Amino acid sequence: QVQLTESGGGSVQAGGSLKPSCAVSRFYFNSFSMAWYRQGPGNEREGVAAIDSDGRTDYADSVKGRFTISIDSTTNTLYLQMNSLTPEDTAIYYCAADRWSGPSTLVRSSSSARFWGQGTQVTVSS
Fold first, then answer.
1. How far from 62 is each of 39, 71, 74, 120, CA to CA, in Å?
2. What's the CA gap between 102 and 61, in Å, rounded?
3. How far, rounded to the nearest angstrom, does the alpha carbon of residue 7 sit from its chain's CA centroid?
4. Sheet holding 3-7, edge to edge
5. How far, in Å, CA of 116 to CA of 99, rounded?
6. By the number of CB atoms within 10 A of the CB, which of 70, 72, 79, 119 ranks highest?
């Protein structure tokens, strides 16, 4: 079974950057798509970014131009580079993986993801 472990969240001032990571075990990057989701206070879970085995990506409109999803296959690690952070980005961030869904589907539908990590807290203050 795929195992996902997030880390690298934290607290930053508005305009700052964070790069949470997701360690992945027991699956093949070349056959899975990966995604980041988040759930902020009073909000439902939403898709943030996703990437497939060919490197195709998709992002939520709210983070386009600010966030970049990537995979380092040498360390089996998924990353989310988060720049120009705002308080609206405050949330618990989860990584997820799926064998069959593409990036656009994963961003738009969290129910499509099969495997999930435990989440890492990101807090952005003004």
1. 14, 21, 30, 19
2. 17
3. 11
4. 3-7, 21-25, 77-82, 67-72
5. 13
6. 79
SS3 at position 33: strand
Check: CB of residue 20 under 8 Å from CB of residue 6: yes
DSSP string, 60-91: -TTTTTTEEEEEETTTTEEEEEE-S--GGG-E
DSSP 101: -
* Token pair belonging to 52: 């497939």
Residue 34 corresponds to which amino acid?
Answer: M
Q: What pairs with residue 91 in β-bridges?
A: 122
